[in-house]
Amino acid sequence: MTTGPGLRESKKLATRAALARAALRLAADRGVDGVTVEDVAAEAGVSPRTFFNHFATKEQAFVDDDLARGRAFLSAVAAGPPDADVWQLLRSAALATFVTGTLPDRDQLLKEQLVRTSPAVLAQVLASYAALEQELVVELGRRTGDPAGLRPRLLANGVVAVARAATETWLATDGASPDAFAALLDEGFTALAPAFSAV
Questions:
Q1: Alpha-carbon span 169 to 106, nearest angstrom
Q2: Around Cβ 128, how many Cβ atoms within 10 Å?
Q3: Which member of 11, 35, 59, 98 lies 3.0 to 4.6 Å from 124 by CB, making a disulfide possible if both were Cys?
Q4: Which of 2, 43, 53 has the alpha carbon at shortest distance from 19?
């Protein structure tokens, strides 16, 4: 039986999420350079020391929600059945972790894109995602039995392409809903299935 996090861990997660949301709100209003760690902590109702218990830099706070989705996706892939069709597993993991309840949140994604105009934030995103993508390649290498080959990298790049195209298309649509995003995501996986199901 799987149990959720305890009360203490739940409070830590809630504080981390509150800091990340506060950082994005402030950055959207002031720009990344106009926000300090002290500002973010005050906005979230905690001390700067508490901020540093969760993040080493303000740039980490700006992108934490985005990276949390990536980590959840990796966990879903790793937990999938060992004999699953890999492309279909990637599709189901993406739909389960990138579309949950009222997510994705349009304002949230727009703010995430906004902060990436900062070179420091973009560097944080690229470094973090490089590490996540490498973990995905390792998992796909294990599943395909081809750890050093081309196939795991093609599959990982395919997922990134689908997620990016679906997000950009969704954000360009006025009044877009999470259901609309899910449909775009599914459409993207379907479009690439002939190429990637055989990979």
A1: 12
A2: 18
A3: 59
A4: 43
CATH-assigned architecture of domain 58-196 = Orthogonal Bundle (1.10)
Residue with token string 């830099």: 57
Single pTM value for the model: 0.85
Q: Are 104 and 98 in contact (CB under 8 A)?
A: yes
Q: Which residues contact 10 (CB under 8 A, 6 or more apart)?
A: 4
Q: Tell me which amino acid residue 78 is.
A: A
Query: H or E stretch including 98?
Result: helix 86-98
Q: Which helix (H) or strand (E) holds 168?
A: helix 151-171
Instruction: Tell me the pLDDT tens digit for each residue of 59-72.
Output: 999 888 888 889 99
Residue 1, pLDDT score: 47
Which residue type is seen at 121?
A: V
Other residues' Cβ atoms within 10 Å of the Cβ of residue 131: 12
